[in-house]
Amino acid sequence: MGGTMKIFTINPGSTSTKIALFEDETCVFSKNVSHEAEKLAEYEGISDQLPYRMETIRTLLAQAGISLEGVDAVVGRGGGLLPLEGGTYKVDEVLLDHAVRGANGVQHPAQLGPQLAHAFCSQYGGQAFVVNPPDVDELQEIARMTGIRGVDRRVHLHALNLKETAIRHAASMGRAYEECRFIVCHIGGGISVSAHKNGRMIDGYDIVGGEGPMAPTRCGSVAVSDILRYAEEHGVAETKKLCTKTGGFVSHLGISDAIELTGRAKAGDRYAGMVWDAMIYQINKCIGSMACVLGGRVDGILLGGGMVHSEDLVQKIRESCQWIAPVSAYPGEFEMEAMAAGARRVLSGAEAAKTYSGISVWGGFTYGG
Question: Cα separation of 347 and 341, whole Å?
Answer without folding.
Answer: 10
